[in-house]
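Give me the fold.
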Amino acid sequence: MNTIFGDKAKVFLRRGLALCACIMLAAVCFGSFIGCGGTHVSSEADGAQRGDEADGEYGVWARRDVRLRIVATVFPAYDWTREILGEQVGDVELTLLLDGGVDMHSYQPTADDIIQIATCDMFIYVGGESDEWVEKVLAAAVNPDMVIINLLDVLGEDVKEEERVEGMEPGHEHGAILGHEEEAEADEHVWLSVRNAKILCAQIALELEKLDSAHAVEYEQNVTEYIARLDELDAAFQCTVWEGKADTLLFADRFPFRYLTDDYGLNYFAAFPGCEAETEASFETVAFLAKKVDELNLHGILVVDDSDRKIAETVISGTEAKDQEIFVMDSMQSVTRKEAEQGMTYLSVMEENRKVLERVLAE
């Protein structure tokens, strides 16, 4: 009895001290982010949405007592963790950090986000160039036992570099402006491969089993069942491609789907790579894409979920037929917690993407 009470007391003490330290950490880190001139984009999730109660005078979260606190930066990792936790999710504070539709390429953490990360038990993030801010936050984290999962590190040699294919808009990176050779960047959109998802889910489950050994058997069973569903989706994607009449996709937009196209042997043309910040395509790029639509006799042009479709519409106006349909594939970069609570899942989004491919490739 004394041992149990002592353990609980230590947990509460550690969390109390951690919270105090985090207030100071957040003030320092938040100030440094703003001071560096970076764009500050706040997620729309506030304390109430996260199940917290705020102390208005000091801005301190009086957080409910839970067994585990897990923070995932992007929706796919959040949803995978939710599936692996299963019935245990009720005793876990699971936070989707990039809530409110904030794109990961423009995100910078708020002071509240820093506190969430610094005091959590498990932190899952992508690990690419868009996550450069993470290093500073983790360096000052107050939980020495935090489990950190970097998705790119988990995949290791399976991580692909961003590429620029024929007709794509020239790069605007710092190196290109100075006339130096551009450094290859890792393609961060690893979750858009169902095959990658299996590997990443297995790693998340393994770390959860270590962190919460009392429920290890349940987590193992949940991830086994979930990976079986991913296997079914993987097979469905492969059949869709095999049965398609076309083998080339054309994105009049950014292209974050390289992992998916490589998995199933598809070719592609696009206006920009997946992490490109530019939204305006040159006349040369638009003309090239329009010519490719005619050459390949494509009846469908693709855009990503946050597209305003302007480039696609301009490309269509430059084709001979001018009657192509615009299709949307969801990259899951701006999914909100509200959408997740309303039933959106990684599997449901990827199945919709498969249906889009089915229509595009059948043309």
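The two ends are 69 Å apart (CA to CA).
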